[in-house]
Automatic annotation (TrEMBL):
InterPro entries: ABC_Gly_betaine_transp_sub-bd. Residues 55-213 form the ABC-type glycine betaine transport system substrate-binding domain. Pfam families: OpuAC. Residues 1-38 form the signal peptide. Transmembrane segments: none annotated. This is ABC-type glycine betaine transport system substrate-binding domain-containing protein. The lineage of its organism: Bacteria, Bacillati, Actinomycetota, Actinomycetes, Kitasatosporales. It comes from Streptomyces cuspidosporus. Keywords: Signal.
Amino acid sequence: MARTHARRRVRTRRRIRARLLTAAAGVTALLTATGCGAADMTKQSSPYANVGGTKSVTLSVQSWVGAQANVAVAEYLLDHELGYHVETVQVDEVPAWDALSQGRVDAILEDWGHPEQERRYVKEKKTIAPGGELGVTGHIGWFVPKYFADAHPDVTDWKNLDKYAKTFRTAESGGKGQLLDGSPSYVTNDKALVRNLGLDYQVVFAGSEAAQIT
């Protein structure tokens, strides 16, 4: 699970069910906007927001490729089919909920499960409404390079991971095997899984999905 050498890397990628979230007060049947407020990461409102007759939508873009693809499709359809000017802003997962509730963005097209934010904004404040599921059921998984699994087939059973802990040890993992995650802002249960399974591994964050894959 080494970050510096491909032969010692285990990568985790999280893929769970995603949902589209929109603000509670609607401007169209597809995307909706709500009241005012201020969110630190999106202080600047759209220059098109108060132009007479201009239809404008701001979409939150998450930092992984799948979310970026979702936004790209929505942006194209809103622009070419519905005549909207579309702005995008990249916001981490939890702050994006705040921005959506406060009207600084109009929709989050992919969410990985934030029960506290959902309870606060959807159930209690009712400033955000679910926009429906995306139709894709993702998967949580731990991955190793294929060549390593070919050479050591038993590594794909978590019960055998400790056998290879020394092989996957890095300077960042503190003497344990390294389990490489993406950004600390991503939703993941890896630390709890390692602890509850009693594995001799340490979760290390690459910083982003791109860095993790690389």
